[in-house]
Specification:
The protein is mostly helical. The protein has one domain (3-291). 75% of the residues lie in helices and 0% in strands. It has helices at 3-26, 32-54, 62-86, 92-99, 102-113, 121-138, 145-172, 179-197, 210-238, 240-244, 250-262, 268-285, 287-291. The radius of gyration is 18 Å and the shape is globular. The chain starts with a helix and ends in an 11-residue tail after the last helix. The model is unreliable at 291-302 (pLDDT under 50).
């Protein structure tokens, strides 16, 4: 990668890694449903503006929008809600590391349901290593049931992301939609779905303090909206495999930012579990071997 691509790579990791801290701060003044709705509306507004400026066409088929709605449900609404509920009782750092298991879960699900994905010994070993790391991260021996429930919710978000990735790959990628069009459409559909369910979720009078307002705005406009654009630019510049390696760096930023700004502790199982998960993903994906080859552009991450 050239210097500009390295800068974009690190900026993207920073934006996604910081989102877990912004969620934590936002929850001080908003209920989870309110937070997710604000995040999605702001993110959708950013992408719709860029789509309009660049004159990128959105899908017109009702069937395609149905698939986009499902992708928005599993790729945005459910994981965003689970993260918001989970971070009420668990730390932003460990939430970020648990989300780092998404590539591992995606690989497992894709191997199970996609005919083009073959099960191999390498994948099986990597998945086994990775899931051992997930157990370390969740810490079922933990004394606080609330904290355990929060970690399980965050892991559930990672599972939902994996379902969303595989769904997009199976039903939307073959359609050849422009990445920006797909990203904007998915966020719009997710915002509509979230608006429909928010009245039925926990509600509170918003306490929009300075830190809460700043966190929601940055989370929506930057970490959700602009991060999509940055990611697709990175894919175009360096290829999908190299760009997706940002998943290895996001948990590091998530932990560092939560320690620096929230004062969260770094526990032994956070470090050990996170390293084991990343090792499992790297082994299962044969990451080093892939990076030696040039990679075609492919669909992106959340």
């Amino acid at each position: 990668m050239d210097k500009a691509s390295v800068a974009r790579f690190l900026l993207l990791a920073l934006l996604w890694g910081s989102s877990f801290t912004f969620i934590k701060v936002s929850l001080e003044g908003l209920a989870p449903g309110q937070l997710v709705l604000g995040r999605l509306v702001l993110g959708a507004a950013v992408l719709l503006t860029i789509v309009a400026v660049r004159k990128v066409a959105l899908p017109r088929s009702a069937q395609v929008w149905g698939h986009i709605g499902a992708a928005g449900l599993f790729g945005n609404v459910i994981p965003f809600l689970l993260l918001s509920y989970g971070e009420k009782t668990t730390g932003a750092g460990i939430a970020g590391v648990l989300i780092g298991a998404s590539p591992l879960l995606t690989l497992a699900l894709a191997t199970a349901v996609l005919p083009t994905e073959r099960a191999t010994v390498r994948k099986a070993v990597g998945l086994g290593i990775g899931f051992a790391g997930v157990v370390l991260l969740i810490g079922p021996w933990h004394e606080s049931l609330g904290s355990l429930g929060g970690r399980l919710a965050c892991f559930g978000a990672a599972v939902s992301y994996a379902i969303g990735f595989v769904y997009v790959r199976k039903f939307l990628s073959p359609l050849g939609l422009a990445p920006l069009s797909l990203a904007a459409s998915q966020l719009v559909s997710a915002a509509v779905l979230q608006a429909a369910v928010t009245p039925f979720l926990d509600w509170r009078v918003p306490a929009l303090t300075g830190p809460v307002t700043f966190s929601v705005v940055v989370l929506g406009l930057v970490s959700t909206g602009l991060a999509y654009v940055l990611y697709f630019r990175l894919i175009g510049d360096v290829g999908a495999t190299t760009a997706s390696a940002v998943n290895y760096v996001v948990p590091v930023f998530a932990v560092l930012i939560s320690v620096l700004f929230l004062g969260e502790p770094v526990t032994w199982n956070l470090l050990a579990g996170g390293l084991v998960v990343l090792l499992g993903v790297a082994w299962a994906e044969n990451r080093l071997g892939q990076l030696r080859r040039n990679d075609p552009v492919d669909a992106g991450r959340h």
